[in-house]
Automatic annotation (TrEMBL):
Catalytic reactions on record: glycyl-[protein] + reduced [flavodoxin] + S-adenosyl-L-methionine = glycin-2-yl radical-[protein] + semiquinone [flavodoxin] + 5'-deoxyadenosine + L-methionine + H(+)
Needed co-factor(s): [4Fe-4S] cluster
Keywords on record: 4Fe-4S, Iron, Iron-sulfur, Metal-binding, Oxidoreductase, S-adenosyl-L-methionine
Domain 4Fe-4S ferredoxin-type, first and last residues per copy: 57-86, 87-116
Family named by the database record: Belongs to the organic radical-activating enzymes family.
Species: Desulfoscipio gibsoniae DSM 7213
Protein name: Glycyl-radical enzyme activator family protein
An MF annotation (GO) of this entry: 4 iron, 4 sulfur cluster binding
Amino acid sequence: MTIGVSNIVNQKLKGRIFNIQRFSLNDGPGIRTTVFFKGCPLRCLWCSNPESQQGAPQLFHLSNLCTRCYRCISVCPTGSTQVGSGGEVVIDREKCKVCGKCVEACPNEARVVMGKEMSLEEVFDTIKKDSLFFRNSGGGVTFSGGEPTQQIVYLRSLLKLCGAYGFHIALETCGYVAWEVLKSILGDVDLILYDLKHIDPIKHKQLTGVENQIILSNLQQIVKLGQDVVVRIPFIPGCNDSHENIEAVGMYLREIGQKRVDLIPYHRLGEGKYRSLGLHYKLEGVAINTEENVQRAVMALKNFGLDVEVI
């Protein structure tokens, strides 16, 4: 059955998307297409997708691909791209308007605009390409970010579209959103992937820029409603990997009746993105988790009756 986009939602709506990743395997069950929304209210020190944080488009400069042909400099209308003291290409981020002219001029794809406005139809057409894989693997679509609920009207429309086609829908959220907003879309979501960074509100603010009272309250209410939820815990050395925090998280989840947990060990895959954005990575030099520490956390959580998977 073919269902037209215009029959379900306002097809003129556009959202800010920075990536659509097909054939994802760790964003819910089966083979999935993950749609990454731009904009996030948190500023996690370990964020592996720093390009997701700002709502506006940003310019990536991939210095390893740059051959110093300087074509970007010749086409820059604001003079924000210049030659540095060592002959390297540098960007004045305050002057740059992210017009994209340098991206078009670069012969080596060393520049990329991260984030663009996409219509509902553009996004949905990409999702539909993998419908056969969804059916055969028990997969579906996952909306991630950033924080998808920051573009709630656009998100709600995509949920309606995917639901009309019978796709399994997962939503990854940091939970830092008004309860009424979150509650309004729960009926259109099959699975919530709920991030939990730290149980202590003060430390949570130090690590993410916001306190966690709203996050914990929303999680409790979602679980109470019987929603299918997987709590996702990033396991970051020196940040939230202490025995005290893991014990407190386990106790809290048991108290509210939450069972399923994904533990996500720290990785440095996003570190290069900070350089590409002209940003400093605040966890530079932090070692990855040892297998011993990961298994210790897994056992501590399991002692509270939780079903734990390391991803």
